[in-house]
Amino acid sequence: MLNHLPTTVSKDSIMVSFDVVNLYTTIPHEYGLKFIEFWLEKFPSEVPDRIEKKFIIEEIKFILQNNYFNFNGESNRQISGTAMGTKVVPTYANLVMAYLETQMNTRTNIPFNWARRICTIVSSIEMSNKRLQELNEILLERQYPKTSINNGMERTKAIDIQELRRPKTR
């Protein structure tokens, strides 16, 4: 990940790490499938010729709609989001987040650096706040739970900037 960071940054730059709380369980099936279709259309050469796009979408849909778990001795079907531990889910969630990032990039020309794997951003405080607002708008448009979004935004804004700049000691 460090290879993706810029070699020089301005004096007021900070490193910020975003963690999407409960990502797997909050991705609406409708949007997740739409975003997977986006990537399949954008990079058709990444899919072997013998596999049809429709097959991939139908299989992901099957996995999403057939998540069963036991709780208090009862079997349940998860009807929202994705199950933890399902092999396709990390790729699915990363593609959903990558799609949201493309939406943020097409709305404005705010400069930033983003390391995809751990979602680390290096930017000025002002730019970070603009990015947070953009992400907030995109998630609301896609009907993510408003309380989850607001809680995450507030926790992110509450991080002490000086604490981020201070070297960690063990």
Please describe what this structure looks like.
This protein has 170 residues and is of the alpha+beta class. The protein has one domain (2-165). The chain has seven helices and five strands, in the order E-H-H-H-E-E-H-E-E-H-H-H. It has helices spanning 23-26, 29-42, 53-65, 89-107, 125-141, 146-157, 161-165; strands spanning 13-17, 67-71, 74-78, 113-115, 120-124. The protein has a three-stranded antiparallel β-sheet with strand order 1-5-4. The chain has a two-stranded antiparallel ribbon with strand order 2-3. Strand 4 and strand 5 (120-124) form a beta hairpin. Helix 2 runs antiparallel to helix 3, helix 4 crosses helix 5 (125-141) and helix 5 runs antiparallel to helix 6. It is globular and about 50 Å long. The model is unreliable at 115-122 (pLDDT under 50). It comes from Mytilus coruscus. This is Reverse transcriptase domain-containing protein.
What is the element layout, followed by pairings?
Elements: E1 13-17, H1 23-26, H2 29-42, H3 53-65, E2 67-71, E3 74-78, H4 89-107, E4 113-115, E5 120-124, H5 125-141, H6 146-157, H7 161-165
Antiparallel strand pairs: 1-5, 2-3, 4-5
